[in-house]
Amino acid sequence: MSNSRTKNATLNIVFAVLLQVVTFFRGLILPRIIIPAYGSDVNGLISSITQFLAYISLLEAGVGSIFRTSLYKPLANGDMYGVSGIINEQKRFYRKIGVAFVFYVIALCFIYPLIAKTDIDKFYIITCILILSISTFSEYFFSLPYVSLLSADQKIRISHIVSIVYTLANIAVSLFWVSLKADIRLIYLSMCLLGLLRPLFYTLYVKRHYALNKKVACNKAALNQRWNGMVHHLAYYIHMNTDSAILTIFIGTVMVSVYNVYGAVIFGIMNLVISISNGVAAGLGNLLTTGDNASIQRTVNLFEFVQGGMATVLYTVTAILIIPFVRVYTVDMLDANYIQPLFGYALILAEVIYCFRFIYSTISMNANKYKETQLGAILECLTNFILSLVLVLVFDMGILGVAIGTLVAVLLRYFYDVWFLSKNIINRPMIKAFKMLFISSLISVWSIALCKWIFNYDSINSFVHWIIMAIPTALITLLTAIIIYGIFYKDAIKTLFNKITIKRIRR
Fold this sequence. Notes:
Elements: H1 3-38, H2 40-54, H3 63-76, H4 80-115, H5 122-152, H6 156-179, H7 184-195, H8 197-209, H9 226-250, H10 253-288, H11 293-329, H12 341-366, H13 374-393, H14 398-425, H15 430-454, H16 463-488, H17 490-506
Helix pairs in contact: 1-2, 1-6, 1-10, 2-5, 2-9, 2-10, 3-4, 3-5, 4-5, 5-6, 5-7, 5-8, 6-7, 9-10, 9-13, 9-14, 10-11, 10-12, 11-12, 11-15, 11-16, 11-17, 12-14, 13-14, 15-16
């Protein structure tokens, strides 16, 4: 990458990681104070409604990433007329979704109370739906086009900073209202009202830093790959939301609460890892347009090593410590069985494979290969949905069934994306990706065996004790990774070291 691309990618990654760390702790703090105060059923209800509201984004058809990739060229050329045409089209498109969202929320108010397995009053459910819909509506009507512009211009860190402040404010507001034993709806209403400040900030920032022209005709050509992008968007939302929907309808919102206690940790780690992909996405898109194959290969190798290594270390530690953590975390949550080790391990394995797969799909998407890669997305969607339903309804596997469905679907998509990237984008041998997966698996197995041999994790009975055990566990896993990666990935480590050293010298 050029110096400017490297600098922007670094800043984006730093703030993306900070955002995911803050979001991760929010995901741990809120259930810990909400479940004891309001119960697992209410916590599961809020999580479930949030997931159902997210389905409206299926109407977006994945155009967010399509708009972003279409902005790369005019931004690189300083063509603000072209940028304005794309942004105006994006505004027009998202406001149509905003209007559709209003009707979707009305429909949800009638349908959701009928299909959700819960003992909570219907009026209570409807008010929760209306309150939680405020943030999503404001995003579609005001925020998303500007966030897309910042992302394409390698300034997504601005959006991350706004989200960090918003997330910290959410935590503070929640702690305040829970301490007063307020109605949980008041907590989420306060959060949503705070969220209305975000579109105001984006509007002011973009107005000051970009000479956009509202009178430029909408560039409808930017949506040429809309339907191809929709397939990828659908795959993502089935991956993230199908499990909660199946649990809500066929098992109950209490089990959604169990799912989300594990998800707070496991998906938090996933978001932290793929923040690397999101941070370098615009830089990769810019680099791919240059056709400099040598630079592209070096960047992809480094990208794979950093994100793959990060996923390996973090998820290995998570696999070792997840059950002791949940046992301590839910010690006073007696209205549901939160100790589900097989489910936890299956979900961890699914998400670590997802993080590896995301490396290769990120490169393909930023090469604008939406249509060409939609077969893999379709396979993932169908496998996840159908297999999860079969395992839950036919084999009565409950929460474990949805995790296995996700795992098998993600694994199929992983092999497809590795194949497509190697054969159609950068002519990269597939063995390189499989080598990374194998070496990372070796690190995980060795680290888990070593830590289990040294420590007795069943003895953990407090957060302090958990932290005391977590520190050496993380150090052993990290040391194991450094040694084994050092043997098999000397060139990547050398390249990474040189980049860090050069930056320090320039400073």
